Structures are given as C-alpha cells and as structure tokens.
Write a sequence for this structure.
C-alpha cells in the first residue's frame, strides 16, 4: 500500500494557544480518511498546513511524496482543497463556474470538462442556472466538482457536508466514494460521527492537540467493551403518552 499523506509530530500554536501538539497519521492511496474532532479541535489547521496555506511550527508532513514545507509548489500541483465555506461565484451559472476554473488551469476543452462534471454531480439540469438560485447541497456539489478539475491525486474536503440536509449529504458522500474508487486519495474533516462511520476507510480522532485514536471503524469499536443490556425503569415520554392516546395504528 502506498502512503500518500504522512504527518509526523505536527505542532502548531497561534500565539499562546497550542492547537496541535504532535499530530501523527498516514493516509493510503485511494482511501478516504476522516479527521474527526469537535469545534476548535484543529481540523482546519491541519488541512491548511497540508495544503501549504499555513506553516507548522514543528514536525514533518509529506503529500504525494512532497514535503509541504520544502516543496510547496509540488504539493499544490498535487492537491485540491474544498474549504469549509463554499467558494462558488453566485453571479455565474454552475457551468460558467466550472468553465472558469478549467480555463484558469489552462486545460483543453473547458466546456466538455464542465459538462462531464455537471453530469457526474447530478447538476446537468441546473448547469445553466445562476448559482444564486442553488440550494446548499447543490452549491457544495458544485464546489467539490470545481476542486476536481485537473484530476488532482489528493483532495482535501474541510467539513464537506456541514449544513446540508440528509439527502444532500448522501449525494456528497456518493461523490466522495466515487472519487476514492477512481484512486483519488481523500482527506476530509468532519464533526459528524455518522459521516466518518459511513464514509471513511480510516478514522482519526483529533482531541486536545493530538490524535487520540486512529483506525478502521471496526478497530475503534473494539476499544469499547461489548454492548451490555440494561433494564431501566422508564418514565413515560410525551411520545409514549401520545401513542397510547392515539394508538400506533392510524
Ligand atoms: N488565525 C488564527 N489565529 C488565532 N487563533 C486561531 C486561528 N485560526 C484558528 N485559531 C484557533 O485555533 C483553534 C483551532 O481552530 P481550527 O479552525 O483549526 O479548528 P476546527 O477543528 O477546524 O474547528 P471547526 O470545527 O469549528 O471548524 C481554535 O481555537 C481557533 O479559535
Ligand atoms: Mg474547521
């Protein structure tokens, strides 16, 4: 198995605030890796360091074989980043946004690239509409589609589904799975346990500046004792009262 992202001893402080205190993890090629942590745990900080937007205070990190501090240009050519807040242009249509990025990357046939991505992210029907008319889920999908232009081997998704409804989240998950299926390495951050559970091949929990645990879902579940059955006396809830009054059958 090829390691595409390797982080060793990563430290980062903002003045007196020690956010990362020695973070270590590795991500295998073509896998989906979830960095799980609560608000302020340092997830975006890790993503910013790996995408060369921020310098670490200590430690080493390589992405696609390149050192983030010593070879930032090579790292940038290997990655795409979808930030925590959607970066789509409201005034343009979905298709125009995609064409624009393809042109900025000097790719041949931007129109075909745009149409292919619109189809892949179920946006073909909405492609000619201004993004200002899109739902949150559509914006997020367009944002991810934009980050795939040029087929980078590594993609970083910072909280890809925050604020989306369940249906839109599933659509984003499907798109992410498809990417990994094609060999793209995905590092995503999330504060949703179920997102990590459904999507990730491996999960790392970032807490108080360090990776607390790291492994597959099955490995993480083994850290807890097996489920026990307890009998508790239960006060009726409003739901119980409601159901006993109106009955469970309509
Ligand atoms: N530029 C900065 N200057 C000072 N403090 C910062 C800066 N950026 C982040 N922080 C602080 O560092 C900590 C980690 O922030 P970070 O954005 O990495 O967390 P996060 O895990 O991405 O959180 P969230 O889930 O809210 O996105 C927070 O306490 C934040 O306030
Ligand atoms: Mg964040």
């Amino acid at each position: 198995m090829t390691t595409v992202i390797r982080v060793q001893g990563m430290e980062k402080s903002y003045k007196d605030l020690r956010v990362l205190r020695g973070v270590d993890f590795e991500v295998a090629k073509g896998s989906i890796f979830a960095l799980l942590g609560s608000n302020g745990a340092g997830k975006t900080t890790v993503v910013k360091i790996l995408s060369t937007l921020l310098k670490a205070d200590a430690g080493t990190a390589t992405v696609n074989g390149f050192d983030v501090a010593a070879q930032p240009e090579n790292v940038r050519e290997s990655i795409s980043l979808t930030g925590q807040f959607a970066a789509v242009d409201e005034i343009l249509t979905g298709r125009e946004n995609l064409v624009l990025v393809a042109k900025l990357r000097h790719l041949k046939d931007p129109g075909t690239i745009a149409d292919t991505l619109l189809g892949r992210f179920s946006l073909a029907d909405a492609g000619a509409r201004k993004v200002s008319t899109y739902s949150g889920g559509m914006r997020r999908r367009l944002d991810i589609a934009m980050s795939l232009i040029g087929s980078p081997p590594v993609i970083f998704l910072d909280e890809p589904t925050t604020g989306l409804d369940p249906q839109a989240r599933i659509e984003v998950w499907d798109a992410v799975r498809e990417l990994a299926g094609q060999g793209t390495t995905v590092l995503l951050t999330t504060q949703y346990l179920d997102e990590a559970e459904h999507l990730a091949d491996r999960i790392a929990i970032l807490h108080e500046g360090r990776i607390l645990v790291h492994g597959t879902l099955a490995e993480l579940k083994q850290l807890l004792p097996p489920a026990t059955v307890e009998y508790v006396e239960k006060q009726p809830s409003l739901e119980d009262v409601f159901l006993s009054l109106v009955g469970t059958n309509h």
